[in-house]
Design brief:
The complex is a heterodimer of chains A (398) and B (274).
Chain A: H1 8-23, H2 27-30, E1 36-41, E2 45-46, H3 58-65, H4 71-88, H5 109-112, H6 117-135, E3 141-145, E4 154-158, H7 160-172, E5 181-187, H8 194-203, H9 209-223, H10 235-239, H11 250-259, H12 265-273, H13 279-287, H14 292-295, H15 306-316, H16 320-328, H17 343-352, H18 360-371, H19 374-397
Parallel strand pairs in A: 2-4, 3-5
Antiparallel strand pairs in A: 1-5, 3-4
Chain B: E1 3-7, H1 16-33, E2 41-45, H2 51-57, H3 68-73, H4 79-86, E3 88-89, E4 96-99, H5 105-112, H6 123-129, E5 135-139, H7 146-154, E6 157-162, H8 166-185, E7 192-201, H9 206-217, H10 221-224, E8 225-230, H11 233-240, H12 245-248, H13 253-270
Parallel strand pairs in B: 1-5, 1-6, 2-4, 2-5, 6-7, 7-8
Antiparallel strand pairs in B: 3-4
Helix pairs in contact in B: 1-2, 1-13, 4-6, 6-7
The chains are: A alpha/beta (398), B alpha/beta (274).
């Protein structure tokens, strides 16, 4: 912090007396709070650490935002990651430019090659970098001025891919001749909003289900007055939103659903529930852009199985129906010794592991939907209570 | 475009540092009062004596890692980032930022001798971050050295402080000639002489009055006259206390004169340097 002089107010008085005389109407020329476009030094711009839409893989993202690596080092880690993956697939490369499709190669090989998400990410970044090199940065980034004291800093609201592409261009593509500046639209800090960022995200394609879940969490946490940190956070930060819902903040419901792309409440709830996935499953699902419809069943399974099921979804390209069968049917349980236990008993035992995934109201509504009659629903519950009591007694005796 | 004011005169003791520091602070203060969203002013001290750094930050122990010297010696690609890292807050005002000088700047001139693009080692990184500031003020050393050339190449507006004495006034033409040489010789058309600042004016001395009258009557120099700062003991007391003149004694005649100059410069800034 700066140490200000005690006589500052006296100086203000002196300058104030001159302002009116010398400046006339001019002060109003400074009162311009409109958006402005400026070319900013790349080093003065930083991505938003809690931006739901992730560009870099999670580990690199966290390393970068915890200031363990510089932007160049973060990209080098990504390049090395992709180099390993590419070598394993028999497509080694030395320069990132080799990732781009060869225009002279008329074979259909390119079309048949399946790229890993990291390869695809780097390839897209290189492609964007080359476009910026050839055509210039036509579309400025949107940044928020978060400067404090002598530290000049701008946080990216939109355009993180362009940011990384520009770094890639600067440090990994030899033909770069730019000056290390990037055009940005600067938004005053007081005008920044998590709702606007959410709308920007949902308006563009490519937002994964996991990113949507993070976004839903951010919106919920914001309206419930949680402080959104300015540093990298793990998934547990977003998981706090699992305890929150729209009912507590009805006045924001419409705004939140609108920011999420005008979705329905039930869909919002499904999306938010994805945060129950284990860290590894979240990372895999995000990286491979698995849709919510295929993930929603996974959250009901014990968390130790999440990553494995998500891997199966990726490896075998399972449909939502197949995932449901695995998660709700016997599929997940086949590995266990279940010869002497009926599938129904196993299902009920499994259900006891996911009690926290539902609420009494939800269970009551589900029973009503299943039975269509309140009396029958109550009878089912009473029967279940008896079964549970007997099972408990059995366990005590055993 | 951010205006970069360089205070230069190869004659020592004419009030370059005093003018640069107080005017930099005055611009920041006045812009703040005018409600400018960006009222930050950057003061760059290129004088190895580091007087401007000392009075505005209270320190003079800047060295190889945290001063203008660091910027000049940095890799070209990292120079702008290094520049940002070396900027320190002033103790005078939170909107006044300082890139301090170091005694090592003496050696920098020798070290940079023969290095390609050496004169632009200040201008290049500054051009990348200047837009973060409402104005930049550069204090130069009392000589026509490489450091002064760097300051002039980085600037858009040269302000020449001059004492109202015969020899100083004669030397004024060589200063202006030097600025013209930089503009033409280094292809830096944006640089112009934007003002003469008469300092240490003592109206009781007939010679001072006479020279000031001549200056005012001059067809070119008269139009460049930015202000007249009276000789005032408050200046040295303010320096001794590491305070700005405005803070030390706002009623002093020099304070009032500097405030007038600041007002003129802020008006100039508000018109985009027209």
């Amino acid at each position: 912090m700066t140490r200000t002089n005690g006589n500052t107010s006296r100086m203000d008085d002196l300058l104030a007396s001159v302002t009116g005389e010398l400046l006339g109407d001019l002060p109003q020329t400074f009162n311009d709070n409109t958006l402005r476009v400026e070319r900013i030094l790349l080093e003065m711009v930083r991505p938003d650490p809690v931006q739901p839409r992730r560009v870099l893989p999670e580990t690199i993202h966290l390393n970068f935002h915890n200031n363990r690596v510089t932007p160049t080092q973060a990209l080098r880690e990504l390049v090395q990651l992709v180099q390993i993956a590419a070598r394993q697939r028999g497509r080694p490369f030395n320069s990132v430019l080799e990732l781009l499709p060869n225009a002279d190669d008329e074979r259909d090989e390119e079309a048949s090659v399946t790229l890993s998400p990291e390869e695809q990410l780097l390839r897209n970044l290189v492609n964007l970098a080359v476009t910026i090199r050839d055509d210039g940065q036509v579309n400025p980034l949107t940044v928020i001025d978060v400067s404090q004291g002598v530290t000049r800093l701008f946080r990216i609201e939109t355009g993180e891919r362009r940011y990384w592409a520009t770094w890639l261009l600067r440090d990994f593509i030899t033909s770069y001749t730019g000056d290390g500046m990037i055009p940005c639209i600067i938004i005053p800090q007081q005008q920044s909003s998590v709702f606007r960022q959410a709308k920007e995200n949902t308006a563009r394609s490519g937002l994964t289900a996991v990113a949507l879940a993070r976004q839903a969490a951010l919106l919920l946490l914001t309206v419930h007055s949680f402080e959104i940190p300015a540093y990298a956070v793990g998934n547990d930060f977003y998981r706090q939103a699992l305890e929150l819902d729209l009912r507590g903040k009805r006045e924001y419901t419409e705004a939140i659903l609108s920011a999420m792309g005008s979705i329905k409440r039930a869909q919002f709830s499904h999306i938010k529930s994805l945060l129950r996935l284990s860290d590894e499953a979240l990372e895999l699902a995000d990286r491979h852009a698995i849709e919510e419809a295929r993930l929603r069943y996974v959250v009901n399974v014990d968390s130790e199985y999440h990553a494995e099921i998500v891997r199966q979804i990726i490896d075998f390209n399972l449909s939502a129906k197949q995932v449901k069968e695995i998660c709700e049917g016997d599929g997940i349980l086949e590995t266990k010794d279940t010869a002497d236990i009926s599938p129904s008993a196993m299902k009920m035992a499994k259900a006891t592991q996911t009690i926290s995934a539902t609420t009494p109201q939800e269970l009551a509504r589900a029973l009503m939907r299943q039975e269509g009659d309140a009396s029958i629903a109550r009878a089912r519950l009473q029967a279940m209570q008896k079964l549970v009591s007997d099972a408990e007694r059995y366990l005590a005796n055993d | 475009m951010t205006r970069v004011f360089v205070f230069t005169n190869h004659k020592g003791g004419v009030g370059k540092s005093t003018s640069a520091t107080n005017i930099a602070l005055g611009i920041a203060g006045m812009l703040q009062r005018a409600g400018a969203p960006n009222a930050r002013v950057l003061l760059i001290d290129t004088d190895s004596q580091g007087h401007a750094s000392l009075v505005t930050t209270g320190r003079k122990d800047y060295g190889a890692d945290d001063s203008l010297y660091t910027v000049l010696m940095a890799d070209r690609q990292n120079a702008a980032q290094t520049f940002l890292n070396c900027i320190v807050p002033s103790t005078w005002d939170e909107n006044l930022h300082v890139l301090p000088a170091s005694p090592m700047l003496e050696g920098a001139e020798r070290e940079l001798m023969g290095v390609a693009g050496a004169p632009y080692r200040l201008a290049d990184p500054l051009s990348k971050i200047a837009n973060q500031y409402a104005a930049v003020v550069i204090d130069t050393r009392p000589s026509f050295s490489l450091m002064t050339e760097m300051g002039l190449l980085a600037a858009t507006d040269a302000i020449v402080p001059v004492e109202p004495r015969y020899l100083e006034t004669v030397g004024l033409t060589s200063v202006i000639q030097k600025i013209n040489d930089i503009r033409a010789g280094w292809r830096h058309p944006n640089l112009r002489v934007s003002g003469l600042l008469v300092t240490k004016m003592d109206s009781r001395i007939r010679g001072h009055n006479h020279l000031l009258a001549e200056l005012k009557a001059h067809p070119v120099l008269g139009n460049l006259l930015l202000g007249v700062i009276p000789a005032n003991e408050a200046v040295s007391y303010a320096h001794r206390n590491h305070q700005s003149l405005f803070s030390y004694d706002p009623r002093a005649s020099a304070s009032k004169a500097y405030a007038q100059v600041v007002g003129a410069l802020v008006r100039y800034l508000s018109k985009g340097g027209e």
